[in-house]
Amino acid sequence: MICPHFEICGGCQIQDDYPIALQKKVTTFKKLFGFSPDAIFESKERGFRARAEFRIHRDGEKIFLSMNTFGKNERIPIDNCPNLLPILQEIIKKLPNLLQEDILNHKLYAINLLGNINNKAILTLIYHKTLDSLWEQEATKLAKMLKISIIGRSKNQEIVIGSNFINTEIPLDNTTLKYIYKEGNFSQPNPYINAKMINFVSQAIATHQKQDLLEMYCGSGNFTIALAKYFHKVFATEVVKSAIPILKENAKNNHIANIYSARLSGEETIEALNFKRDFFRLKEIDLKTFNFSHILVDPPRSGIANKEVLEFIAKFPYIIYISCNPQTLKEDSIFLGKTHKIIQSAIFDQFPHTHHLETIFIFQKIFTES
Ligand SMILES: C[S@@+](CC[C@H](N)C(=O)[O-])C[C@H]1O[C@@H](n2cnc3c(N)ncnc32)[C@H](O)[C@@H]1O
Fold first, then answer.
1. Are residues 153 and 295 in the same domain?
2. What is the Å distance from ligand 1's center to 266 Cα?
3. Residue 342 to residue 364: CA distance in whole angstroms
4. Which HAMAP family does the UniProt entry name for this protein (predicted)?
5. Co-location of 137 and 173 in the same domain
6. Could you point out which of 228, 263, 289, 343 has its C-alpha 20 to 30 Å from the C-alpha of 154?
7. Per the annotation, where are the binding residues?
8. Are 276 and 195 in contact (CB under 8 A)?
């Protein structure tokens, strides 16, 4: 299906037939790394994306949702995005008409959407004005009409109508993992691919000798929750403060008691584990009791890109590296390749119709005779 906004909207860059587009990504991967991935996980072609952000575009009295234009510093009106989950497509088709009501559209400048595959959604309306009880009344009517939750946000103000989180279930082995995704926190954008990534990692480590797991850049526990049962204990760290309570809630909802988590940056995690600095945040966690066999890193697009952090990671027998940017993965892999070999690799087409690619490498330490 050709999107009518293609080549105007900056959201997608590729409109080849899906199998051709995916094959091109595989070729790019092979050129960059010099080998073929062990596994290739394709996406649903359309209706896969669980998060979106739009700006409001105004033409006289009328309002539209808009995206950045392709290659230009301009914005274009959008009336649908076929990449979004069905519930989100439904919302953006109806929304401009429903927002013509003055109280809801006055000083509205952006919207965010978060959905799940069971047709639940949160719409966040972001304003340059203080929200009052009249706004709340109108927003409550809109939430009822669309059967969704609505969050109104402006400077120092947030009003939640319904819920500020969404439930998601991911099947793993013979169980179903339960997650909450909180609006405003990081979550993997393609739920179908996310389930495949979680299952891939759990199978990839099945035959390893496992003790404890250190996870850096853990977000709200997407991988932590799934992998905890394979390890004695897990120490999970993340720089965003609001992610840690969600991780704890996710652990509780899945009856997991062996995860220890703290808000720490990558650098702080290393200081803590090297016992160079005491953190009040770690007062209830005895880091001396951990015996790590594995480290999992899932850094942002910039990769690890820090020699001290890479040296630290390179001490672990197994490294599970999850990357959303093959370029920075390549650079980090050159460093890690001095001590480790890649024993499993997979690519995941988390972002169809764009050049982006998600990759997982499992590294194992090379033991040299000395
Ligand atoms: C690609 S997301 C992965 C999150 C999680 N693994 C998931 O699957 O949802 C990267 C995470 O790294 C965190 N992060 C970014 N810079 C960081 C840093 N310097 N130290 C620790 N965490 C960081 C972000 O807040 C984000 O949660």
1. no
2. 9
3. 6
4. RNA_methyltr_TrmA
5. no
6. 263
7. 188, 217, 238, 298
8. no
